[in-house]
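Intended use. Records like the one below are meant for learning the mapping from a protein sequence to its folded structure. Do not use them to infer anything beyond what is encoded.
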Amino acid sequence: MVVSQWKLPLDEVPSGDTPYVRAKHAQMVEKDPEAAIVLFWNAINARDRVESALKDMAVVMKRLDRSEEAIEAIKSFRNLCPKQAQESLDNILIDLYKKCGRTNEHIDMLKQKLRLIYQGEAFNGKPTRTARSNRKKFQITIEQETSRILGNLGWVYMQKSNYMAAEVVYKKAQMIDPDANKACNLALCLINQGRYTEAHSVLKEVLQGKLPNSEDCKAQNRAQELMLEVEPKWLPPSETIKLEGFDLEDDFSDGFEKVLNIWAPFRTKRLPIFVEEISSYRNQLAC
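Structure written out for the chain above:
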C-alpha cells in the first residue's frame, strides 16, 4: 500500500487537538492520506502551523500522484510562511517539478537557488546547514550544496537533450565537489555529443577509484556499462583528431566562467565562482 511508505514513529506525532495535530494523526496514526489532506487544508485555512501543514500536505499529495495540486498549493500559500521557510519550500517545489516533468520551471527554480547562493542568501546566510537522511542529521556546506544543485541542473538539461549545457554545469559541479555519479552523467553528455575520447577519460577515473564514491557498486556498474559503449569508438589521445582552428579544451577554459554567468551576474564574498562578463556562449544555455 502507498501509505506504508510513510509510516513514521508514533513518538513523532504531535499532541493536542488543533487542526494541524488532527491532520498529523490522520497521516501517521490512522494511515488515511486522503483524510490527512483535507485536515491539512483545514489547518492552513485556520492559520495553524501553516508552514508545517503546507509542507506535510505537499509530501502526502506527491505520494498520491497529486503533485500538480501540491505545486499550486505551495505557490498560493507560501506567502503565509516566514522568510526562513522559503528555501525549504523551494526544495519541495523542485522535487515536485521533477515529478511532473515540468522542466522549464524546474530549471528556473534551480537557477534561482544558485543566485541565492551567489548572493550569500542561501542557508539563511550561514556557511552550512543541517540536513537529514534516514533520520540521521549531518552538515552540508555551501560548496556541496552548489555542486548538488549544478548536478540537478545538468540532469534536467539532459532530459531536454541539451547535452552541451549539461556538460558545462556537470564540469563546474565536478570542479567544486566531485563525485562518481556526476562523473558518469558527464560522460553520458560527452557520449551523446560523440566525444568518446573525453568520455573514456572521465569513466577511467571512476573505474580507477580516483573520485569520491567511486567504490559505490552502482557507480562502478554504471561506469562499466558506459565504458562498454565507449571503448569501440574512442581514440587514444595521440590519435585524437583536432579540428582546424578549434581547440575544445582551450575554448572551454576561456569561456567556462562566462557561460555560467548567464544565471548569476553577482559576485559573492564567500564563493566567487562566476565572473561578470558577457558570454559568447549565452545561446548554448538557452532553455
